[in-house]
Amino acid sequence: GSLLRYFENQVLKNPSFFYAVQLDKEELITNIFWADTRMRIDYELFGDVLTFDTTFATNKEYRPLGVFVGFNHHREIVIFGATLLYDKIIDSFAWLFDKFLEVHGILCSHALKVLDVMNVKIIPDMYITKRWTRHAREGSMQTTKSYVNLEKAECGPIDRYREFCSEAVKLSSFASEFLEGYVIMKKVMGEAHKLMESDKPSPEP
Asked: Can you give the residue ranges of the MULE transposase domain (predicted)?
């Protein structure tokens, strides 16, 4: 219960936080998976190679802690997702890997089957990461994910917040790595605040 409340609070603070739970026939929680914003960004940048490790210590209920891990450009360990498993049966791992694919926007076999039934024979570009293509070495690394046009009137504050939150975390992480980036980021943020305050519309309902 405490863990789920923590996850729910994290989602309220940052909609990019992802978690999922699997229930048994008695509606009791069996398996839990989660990935915060940092994990999702790290996978997008460094997810070419990963391992799934369940050798970490178990908790008092003897439920193994598993983590999806990889390495960044400095050969430092980065985590792409974490899980608490009830057991190590095939069904638990199948559920877990489906959730891992879901959070990182990778098509699983079920989604591919849906596309096939809809007579879609070419995978949409939004699901193809540039680093998996022959053009991986061309230009700078940019995400190929596409987003809903949030400038349309029907898109509400929550939709725009989710978009801004993800992009802001990426930009802040990059800018904080060197002093010049920090100075530029502070200046741009200050100017943006002044601009929005001077032309602030009435809040949406």
From this structure: 49-106
